[in-house]
Amino acid sequence: MPNLPDFSATAAKDVSNSKHSSHKRIRSIGLILLSVILLGGIVFLLAPSPIEPAKWDAPAAPSFQEASPWQKNNKFSSAQLVADAPKSPEFITFDKEGSLYTGDADGKIYKVRFDAADNPQEAQLFADTKGTPNGLKFDTNGNLIVADIQKGLLSIAPSGTIKVLADQVDGTPIYLANELDIAQDGSIYFSDTSNYGRVTFREIAENKPHGRLLKYDPVTKRATVLLEGLYFANGIALSREEDYVLVSESYHYQLTRYWLKGPKMGTSDIFADNLAGFPDNITTDEQGHFWVGIFTTRIPFVDQMHRSPWLARFMAKLPESLLSGASAPAKHGLAAEFSAEGKLIGSWHDPEGLLYGVTTVVNHGGYLYIGTAPGGSQGVHRVALTK
Fold first, then answer.
1. How many CA within 13 A on the CB side of residue 240?
2. For 84, what's the count of Cα atoms within 13 Å in the CB-facing half-sphere?
3. What is the pTM of this model?
C-alpha cells in the first residue's frame, strides 16, 4: 500500500508560511508608519514658525503665602449663585433701579431683578446682539452701551433696539471690542484687545503688543485711538475724578494708566505690575478703589515660553486645538482690590476651585458680584461683604 501524503505536516508548513508572511507584512507596515512619523517630525521641526516671538523675563509670581497681600484665603468659597442663565457672564453692571445686567458668550444679554429682601429673581432675556457682548454700562439716557467682540461698540435702547456706534477707528476695523467705561460727559473709553481679532494661544506665545485703548466721542460720533502697543488690552475703568483711565494688559500681568487731565495728560505709565495672574475686567467702587478679576493665576509654562523664544516658536506650530489646555484657567478663583494710588489692598480667593475663571468683580449693595468667562465656572455669583 503506497504511503499517503502527510497532510498534517503540510498544513503546519502552510500555517508557518502564513504566519511568516503576516509578520513580514506587519513589520513592513510598521516600518512605513515609522518612516511617515519620522518624516513628518522632520518636516514639522524644519518648517518655519508662524511667529517670531519676543523674549521677556517675566518677574517671579507673587507668593500666596502668609504676610503677602496675595495671601491665600477662602473669601470666595462661600459664593452664592445669583443666576445660571448666563453661562459665561463676562461683565456685570446695574441700572438705576438696581437690576443686574450681564451678557453671555452666545450674544444674549440678561436682566436679573431682586425682591425686597434682595433675593435674585429668575433671569430674563433683555437683548441679543448676535455677537459676543462683553463690556456693559448704562449711559445717562438709560441706553445700555455694549462692547461686543464681534460687532464693535453698540448702544441698546430700553426697548431693546440695537444700534452700532462704532466698528471702525481711523479707517481700520475695531478688531475685538472688549470692555468699557463711560465718563460723565458721555465719552466712552473701551479696549480693542488685539488685531488678531480673537483670543489665541499664538498671541500669548508671540508676546508682542497688539491691543489699543480707544475713545468714542458722542458729539462727533467718532472713535479715536488714545494708546497703542498694549499686551492684550482688556478691562477698562475710569478713576473717580476721571483724571485717568486704567486698562488691563493681561499678558504682561499689569494695569496701565492713561492720563486724561493734568500735567501728564496724554501720557501713560504703569499703575500696578507683577499681578498674581492675568488681569481681566476692572470696576470702581464708591471709595474710588479698583476691583480686578484675575482670569487665571500665573501659568509657569507661559513664563517659560517668554524666557525661551525657541519654545514659543515650536508651540506656535502646533494646531490651536491642541493648545487650549495650555492656557486654560487654573481652578483657583482670584480677584484683587487696589487703592486709587495703585496699592494692593487685598485679594479674594477660592483655592478649592469651585469658583474660577473670574473676569469681573463688582462692589454693589453690600455684595461682591462675580462674573466668569468660557473655560471657568458658570453663572453669576456673589459673596457678602463684611465690614
1. 10
2. 3
3. 0.88
pLDDT under 50: residue ranges of the chain? 1-5, 7, 9-12, 15, 43-44
List CB contacts of 305: < 8 A, sequence separation 6 or more.
53, 204, 205, 207, 311, 312, 315
Which distant-in-sequence residues (6+ apart) come within 8 Å of 58 by Cβ?
A: 252, 253, 303, 306, 307
| Start-end of H helices in the chain | 7-46, 201-206, 300-307, 309-316
| The pLDDT of residue 73 | 96
Q: Under a CB-based contact definition with an 8 Å cutoff, are residues 316 and 206 in contact?
A: yes
Nearest to 80 by CA among 380, 385, 387, 386: 380
Q: Using an 8 Å Cβ cutoff, are 284 and 237 in contact?
A: yes
Among the listed residues 333, 332, 311, 334, the one whose alpha carbon sits nearest the alpha carbon of residue 323: 311
Cα distance between residue 151 and residue 131, in whole Å: 6
Q: Compute CA distances 105 → 131, 135, 233, 273, 346, whole Å.
A: 8, 12, 19, 29, 30
C-alpha cell at 183: 465718563
Please answer whether residues 153 and 167 qualify as being in contact, where contact means their C-beta atoms are separated by less than 8 angstroms.
yes
Q: Partners of 279 in the beta sheet? A: 294
CATH superfamily ID and name for 80-384: TolB, C-terminal domain (2.120.10.30)
- For residue 268 the three cell numbers come to 501713560
Question: What is the residue-averaged pLDDT of the chain?
Answer: 90
For the chain, the domains span 80-384
DSSP 61: P
Nearest to 278 by CA among 376, 345, 146, 195: 376
* Separation between Cα atoms, residue 123 and residue 301, nearest integer Å: 39
User: What is the spatial distance between Cα 77 and Cα 75, in angstroms, rounded to a whole number?
Assistant: 6
pLDDT tens, position by position, 315-354: 888 887 777 666 678 999 999 999 999 999 999 999 999 9
Chain position carrying cell 488691563: 248
The per-residue pLDDT for range 88-134, each reduced to its tens digit, is: 999 999 999 999 999 999 999 999 999 999 999 999 999 999 999 99
